[in-house]
Amino acid sequence: MRIHVVRRGESIYTIARSYNVSPEKIISDNELRNPEQLVVGQTLVILEGTRYHLVTPGQSLYSIAALYRISIDELLEANSQITNPAQISVGQTVVIPPRTINFGTIEVNGYTFPNINTEVLRNTLPNLTYLSIFSYQVRSDGSLQSINDQPLISAARAAGVAPLMVITNIGETGGFNSDIAHEILTDQSAQDNLINNVIRTLREKNYFGLDIDFEYVYPYDRESYNNFLRRVVNTLRPLGFTITTALAPKISAGQVGKLYEAHDYPVHGALADHVIIMTYEWGYTYSAPMAVSPIPGIRRVLEYAVTAIPREKIFMGISNYGYDWTLPYRPGTAARTVTNTGAVDLAGRRGAVIQYDQTAQAPFFYYYDDNGRQHVVWFEDARSVLAKFSLANEFRLGGLSYWTIMSYFSQNWLVLRNVFNIRKVL
Fold first, then answer.
1. With the CA atoms of 188, 190, 195 and 199 taken in that order, what torsion angle do they form, in degrees rounded to the nearest 10?
2. What is the largest CA-CA distance in the chain?
3. Which residues of the chain have a pLDDT value below 50?
């Protein structure tokens, strides 16, 4: 697997010729909608496969290696019959091996809303271990606001993907509600009602496990949250259900702020089967322009996380979206959410050149809108997702978790399948 960055003047045909693969394969592998209009700075994933080269007059093993952009050692490893690299013959067949990266096996979770496009879901499911359906909103009395999840559960199980029921403390206005969490965590009657409702839903809907996503919990409810989690685990695990929790991206045990303080990494790590760490939203709707998931920020979170949580339980969050900011940035103004493929399309329409921040390991570009206002867009591409996969491999994490899979990002899944083996639990 190679990641090619489109240069000015290149076409899909010249790129294909330089890698000795067919244009049709590159178009198909990358699911390019408009291959005739490549964007400068756009990434293309090149899957060469095993090829065979017939030696022509004047060629050497060194020139053949340079032609296919691989090393002499890679060529020799694939051609055990060549005992003397300086002696190859015209007409001799040389095996050209594909360039591979093998990070081993990993589990993959994807969050989705019930209204996901059917084709997007169908294309994505083969890449997942778990499908977390977002979400059953918990009410203060322990009742649940139901969702239309049965079609997704059925589709997941048919694809060998384990469906997870997600419960959240999201209120009627749409945001995470600290008071709802407080009522559930401290009122025994409400908690009894919630757990009974969860068990009934897990059984009736044929869920595999539970994903608890309680955010903005009051700091003084930290121990109440820990005790609630203990009770959930002790109740559900004997019934055969798994328990996953979603936690804020902390860089230390004592990190202050309502988003962080009630999320006790060591306790969740000891109790839950999996812990999803939401390593995204450095750049967000109301932030100054920056990468959504910069590698240095994620690294700092993981450096703390692996000291508090068994690394095989940690699922690193991955953002599947970007943001478009109007410049100059003014605090309080909102960025527009864009899909990763939509960002490339936008750059193409506006004649923008996609650049790459080597520190954040993320692509971005500038453009002007019809009113003459300048914008900057940060998003994800094949390079940035490979950087995240490499980080997960470096820390020997157990999994990845996507927020969200609502838009199909073909290059992400292409790279994922070529560097990891995806574990299935069904």
1. 140
2. 84
3. none
Buried b (16+ CB within 10 A) or exposed e, 301-319: bbebbbebbeeebbbbbbb
pLDDT in tens, 305-360: 999 999 999 999 999 999 999 999 999 999 999 999 999 999 999 999 999 999 99
Cis ω for the linkage preceding 135 (within 30 of 0): yes
Stated length of the chain: 426
CA distance 181 to 225: 9
Report the pLDDT value the prediction gives residue 76, as an integer from 0 to 100: 92
Q: Count other C-beta atoms under 10 Å from residue 40's C-beta.
A: 18
Q: How far apart are CA 249 and CA 253, in angstroms?
A: 11
Enumerate helices (H) and strands (E) in the chain, giving the number of each: 14, 19
Q: Does residue 10 have an active-site annotation?
A: no
pLDDT tens-digit readout, 402-417: 999 999 999 999 999 9
Question: Which residues, 6 or more positions from 178, have their beta carbon under 8 angstroms from its beta carbon?
Answer: 169, 216, 217, 218, 258
Q: How far apart are CA 147 and CA 114, in angstroms?
A: 7
Predicted confidence at residue 69, as pLDDT, reads 79
- Among left, alpha and beta (phi > 0; psi -120 to 50; other), residue 283 is beta
Cα distance between residue 292 and residue 215, in whole Å: 19
For residue 17, what is the DSSP state?
H
186 burial level (CB within 10 Å; 0-12, 13-18, 19+): middle
Q: Tokens 């879901």, residue?
A: 121
Beta strands in 207-359 (DSSP E): 209-213, 242-247, 274-277, 314-319, 322-326, 336-338, 355-357
CB of 309 closer than 8 Å to CB of 265: yes
d(CA 243, CA 118): 27
Query: What residues contact 263, with CB distance under 8 A and at least 6 apart?
Result: 217, 225, 247, 248, 250
Q: Which of 213, 410, 402, 407 is nearest to 319 (CA)?
A: 402
Residue 5, strand partner residues = 43
Q: Do 362 and 321 meet the contact criterion of CB atoms below 8 Å apart? A: no
212 SS3 class: strand
Task: Given the residues 107, 215, 261, 380, select the one marked as catalytic.
Answer: 215
pLDDT recorded at residue 93: 94
- What's the pLDDT at 245? 98
pLDDT for residue 150: 98
| Beta pairing partners, 314 | 275
